Amino acid sequence: MSSTQLLVNTLATFIQIYSVLIIIRVLLTWFPSIDWYNQPFAALSQITDPYLNLFRSIIPPLGGIDISPILAILLLNLAGSLVGGLSGSPTMGF
User: Fold this and answer.
1) Is the CB of residue 80 less than 8 Å from the CB of residue 12?
2) Burial bucket for residue 94 (CB in 10 Å: 0-12, 13-18, 19+)
3) Spatial separation of the C-alpha atoms in residues 66 and 28, rounded to whole Å
4) Are residues 3 and 79 in contact, defined by beta-carbon separation less than 8 angstroms?
5) pLDDT (tens place) for every residue of the chain, 94 residues total
6) What SS3 state is found at 93?
7) Listed residue (62, 68, 61, 29) closest to 45, CA to CA
8) What is the separation, in whole angstroms, between the first and last Cα of the chain?
9) How crowded is residue 36: how many other Cβ atoms within 10 Å of its Cβ?
10) What is the spatial distance between Cα 34 and Cα 21, in angstroms, rounded to a whole number?
11) Separation between Cα atoms, residue 18 and residue 11, nearest integer Å
12) Among 34, 31, 28, which Cα is nearest to 52's?
């Protein structure tokens, strides 16, 4: 395995893990009793919120529903597909 393939595979794996973390973050918002200042939720929030805030600034919540994570996950899947295409095999797929 060349260093380029290793880099591409590492990036594809990172994108997959980050997508899963965002999905977990979004699902946990359904539970209002979660204290986002306590671990492990604070760490999850610190990891995912900077990326999600980019999309929240583009698409504000509509009627109390935040749909910006959908765009964020779609963009991550697109990036994962592009990176997977570089390595020769699709790596994304839920």
Assistant:
1) yes
2) exposed
3) 13
4) no
5) 788 888 888 888 898 899 999 999 989 988 888 888 888 988 998 999 999 988 888 887 788 788 888 889 999 889 888 887 776 655 545 5
6) coil
7) 29
8) 26
9) 13
10) 16
11) 10
12) 28
Helices (H), 1-94: 3-28, 41-58, 68-87
pTM of the predicted model as reported, rounded to 2 decimal places: 0.76
Sole residue written with tokens 């390595």: 87
8 A C-beta contact, residue 88 and residue 79? no
> Residue 1 is encoded by which pair of tokens?
């395995």
**Rounded Cα–Cα distance for residues 29 and 8 (Å):** 32
List 62's β-bridge partners, or say none. Answer: 65
The angle formed by the CA atoms of residues 72, 25 and 90, to the nearest 5 degrees, is 50
Q: How far apart are alpha carbons 20 and 35 in whole angstroms?
A: 20
